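ARCHIVE CARD
Drawer: 12
Card no.: 0347
Subject: one protein chain, sequence and derived structure
Cross-reference: see card 0346
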Amino acid sequence: MIKLLRVRNLKVEVLKKDIIGALAKKLKVEVSDILDYEIIKESIDARNKAEIYYIYELDVNVKNEKRIKYNNDIFESKKREYVFSKTGTKKGNIVIVGAGPAGLFASYLLSENGYKPLIIERGKKVEERIEDIEEFFKTNKLKPDSNVQFGEGGAGAFSDGKLNTLIKDLENRHFKVFETFIKCGAPSDIMYSNHPHIGTDLLRIVIKNMREKIISMGGKFRFETKLTDLIIENNELKEIIVNNDEHIKCDALVLAIGHSARDTFKMLYKSNLIMEPKPFAVGLRVIHDQNMINESQYGKKYKDVLPNASYKLTKQVGDRGVYTFCMCPGGYVINASSEKNMLAINGMSNHDRNSGFANSALIVTINEKDFGSNPLDGIEYQRNLEKKAYEIGNGKIPIQLLKDFKDNKKSNSFGNLKPLFKSEYEFANLNKILPNYISSSIKEAFPEFGRKIKGFDNDDTVLCGVESRTSSPVRIVRNELLESNIKGIYPCGEGAGYAGGITSAAIDGIKVAEELAKIYK
């Protein structure tokens, strides 16, 4: 039986991209001995701008593999596999609240394994949601339950579709996530790319296909259906109420509500679910010319050859961290508001990332000392910033040049950089939104970031506000079985405080599905 070899740390010069030649050299065999290979990981080593390399990890099928000498970079490959086990003994009605990554993957795993969960979503299905969001971008008329935050796919459906995650995953749940995405129409390179992303245009298709597969396997969806109350007896969930008047029997409730369901958090708190405030970060978005970022990251030789570059920058300012987050190469800044008379922004990219402009959140850490110890105080802190942003921008995205931000004065025109926006914008003074400890921290970070990326701190760099929805300000407490203090309720995903992005939220949805499968048959 032929054994697959795992080969790590294979360096392949970008312009040549001769993977087979590099493999033959590393394995000390002839090129003709390489039968085939599968890329497991691909990253870029751009430390030396004179010669940039792809770094690969691959599974390789080679003639007469017994002659190959094993070492730290060459060894027998082991199959990557995710296993879902069912040991439950009792029947039950499972309801999943929210059709974002956590809710969709909890639904997908349960449906795939014989369950028939009901998925309720306050917003619309993704194809109808697109129409509402495009209309909002044009007219600035917000629909509170159908916007960038609410609707099938969650907030991630109108972002860059980044799939990076730093969580440990010994059970190969991320492999299941990526495999499912690919089955539903995502590009296959997400399985091995060091910076996998789908893009909002493709992600919408993937989400629709996931829904259709879930339905074909027995799951049911109800859109424009909002969780409005809980019926609890003896500390155990019995029913839920949706749209204020309809009762639905429920034995297990998966709360995958997303980080912007502020009214739902309030209802849950009144229902005595134990919650705690969670540190998060707030700030602005920064926009640059993508070509400038490419040249800084790759150099002139490679800037037009490699995919649009990303970056990640951090600086400690006193006891606060200042860092970039959710960087969107070739993307747009969008109005991501979900409440009337408030304004929040986000970054979005299509799969080809071809807008010509790079944007990233530039945010500062905050904690209970800043917003209070009540579980819902962080939400009010966000709302206060979003009200100010709405006011100074007259309901449009407020923007400012970096030089004017430093000088604390309103901008009136662009400099050399004239970015594209998906939403309406207006020049303003962003210092009026942020407390001084946030704005001063951002200002202090810029010179160091400019030393790391040439041009990052140019005077005509464009700033936008306010970036307030970086993560959930609330954590709904759960035990080792992923259950809340109310029996039958399972907090899940980013909104509940247990994830930070599409992949980690999807993985948390899978974890909750696994726990439910231990109880219900």
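Annotation on reverse: The domain at 94-276+472-517 is CATH 3.50.50.60 (FAD/NAD(P)-binding domain). The chain has twelve helices and 23 strands.
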